[in-house]
Design brief:
The complex is a heterodimer. By secondary structure, chain A is an alpha/beta fold. Chain A has a domain of 103 residues: 2-Layer Sandwich (Nucleotidyltransferase, domain 5), CATH 3.30.420. Chain A is built from five helices and eight strands. In chain A, the strands form two sheets. Chain A has a five-stranded mixed sheet, covered by helices on one side. In chain A, strands 1-8 form a two-stranded parallel ribbon. The N and C termini of chain A lie far apart (60 Å). In chain A, 26% of the residues are buried. Chain B is an alpha/beta fold. In chain B, strands 4-3-2-5-6 form a five-stranded mixed sheet, with helices on one face. In chain B, α2 runs parallel beside α3 and α3 crosses α4. Chain B is elongated. Chain B starts with 15 loop residues before the first helix and ends in a 10-residue tail after the last strand. The interface between A and B is large, with 54 and 43 residues. β7 of chain A pairs antiparallel with β1 of chain B.
């Protein structure tokens, strides 16, 4: 800086950095708005299976999630290690799925209901019995678009 | 500092940028841009009581895949490894009447998948994945032959045309407890 000041009192004016905070705030707001905070805390351990034929899940606002897996270590003392279903922020029984789907549908616009997807995030060690039960409930609730959540990878 | 000659003292906003940067970095780090991925499937609607009986399908057009509770595969009455399933399914779909016991043509070919309640989810997804891969490869072959492009790069109408040639018909049987318990 001092290098420039030698030129005289009225040399190059310093570039105003007054708008720098504005620029940074703009970026900040962009990230704040686009960030999707994970709104559910997982009570079940979910490691999704690997697959290659995967598709991206679009329109996140129209996706409802069902988590299936054995409870996390901390909760195994009280809930056991058998696979359980988690909806929103609590453990649920299979019967509660229809209600869950109904509330999810009510929260959306009527036109959007046919595009709603249910993402099944199940642990790879889960048994098909519980998943079949969930699928049957989804059929009863008429939520027919599903997505088996998987990671990219091969065996 | 406080004694600015004219009116109110100005607050030094120089560190505002630093504070904002700090917040920005926090959000940058916590943001997870990872997209959820998975296999899309459509469930069949619940059967209506008044529904007419489903159309008869020639047994040779059905490729029966059974998975038992030990995660073993029985395909068309024979034990098969999962790694062979894709090739087997491709051969079945693309049979075009060559083998009289296999499918008539890709449009009629149906894959019937049935699993046990004790089957591991991982195996089920692997089987679904292999079957989807068989269809993807067949569609890719067809679109490369017809349009000289991969299926994924085609536009919507062309994709539809290919999809019509190779409709993905994976039917899942109503759940049953086949050979084994939970």
């Amino acid at each position: 800086m001092s290098k420039f000041r030698k030129n005289g009192k009225k040399g190059m004016p310093a570039i105003s950095t007054a708008s720098l905070p504005d620029i940074v705030f703009m970026l900040l707001f962009f990230f704040m708005v686009t960030t999707v905070m994970r709104e559910t805390t997982l009570f079940v351990k979910v490691q999704t299976p690997k697959a290659t034929e995967i598709k991206k899940l679009e329109k996140k606002s129209l996706v409802s999630y069902i988590y299936i897996g054995s409870p996390i270590k901390r909760l195994q003392a009280s809930y056991g290690s058998a696979a359980r279903i988690q909806l929103n922020d609590a453990f649920a029984t299979v019967e509660e799925i229809q209600e869950f789907i109904a509330t999810e549908q009510q929260a959306r616009d009527e036109k959007e209901i046919p595009y709603m997807t249910t993402s099944i995030k199940a642990d790879e060690t889960a048994k098909m019995g519980i998943i079949t039960d969930v699928k049957q409930e989804l059929r009863k609730a008429n939520a027919l678009k599903i997505n088996y959540s998987t990671r990219k990878g091969t065996y | 500092m406080a004694s600015n000659r004219r009116g109110l003292p100005e607050i030094n906003a120089g560190s505002m940028a630093d504070i904002a940067f700090l917040l920005l970095i926090f959000f940058l780090v916590t943001t997870t841009m990872d997209q959820d991925t998975g296999i899309n499937r459509k469930l069949p609607p619940m059967p209506d009581s008044e529904q007419e009986t489903p159309p008869e399908i020639n047994a040779k057009n059905i490729y029966v895949v059974l998975i038992n509770s030990n995660n073993q595969l029985l395909v068309e009455g024979e034990i098969m490894q999962i790694s062979d399933l894709k090739a087997g399914a491709k051969q079945f779909i693309n049979n075009n009447g060559m083998d009289p016991r296999s499918s008539d043509n890709p449009e009629k070919a149906i894959i019937s998948l049935q699993n046990d309640r004790g089957t591991e989810y991982k195996t089920y997804i692997r089987v679904q994945n292999e079957l989807a891969a068989a269809y993807t490869e067949l569609r890719n072959d067809a679109s490369l032959g017809k349009f000289g492009e991969r299926y994924a790069d085609l536009d919507k109408t062309k994709q539809k045309e290919i999809r019509k040639m190779y409709p993905q018909k994976i039917s899942e049987a109503e759940p049953k407890n086949i050979g084994g318990n939970e």
